[in-house]
Amino acid sequence: MKKILIPCDMSELTNFAYDIALKIAEKTDAQIEMLGVVPAPINAVFDKEGNIKTDVGADLSGLEKQLEETKEKLANWAEGKKRIGGTHARIGHIDDTILRFIEDNDVDMLTMGTSG
Length: 116
Description:
It contains three helices and four strands, in the order E-H-E-H-E-H-E. It has a four-stranded parallel sheet with strand order 3-2-1-4, with helices on both faces. By secondary structure, it is α/β, with parallel strands linked by helices.
């Protein structure tokens, strides 16, 4: 096993998911990847790579701001934690974004703990 993904919202349950992932990662020499997803509107349009299209006439500045805040929160949360290979933030539909990340990054295991 090489990669464990934790989709997270930085709630208390994220810490629980991390603790479990860390125990597994230490036994298997795996890295932990953190993924924060900013929920996209239901009618959002995405390109084939899963990126939200910004040329559809909608004002997405609020989503872009949330994305930057999520990136910063994830980086701060992960600071000093063991086995964190990377922190990632995306705008998207939560389930599709997680599944796309798993496929694109050869994730071997998923550990979740979110409040939503």
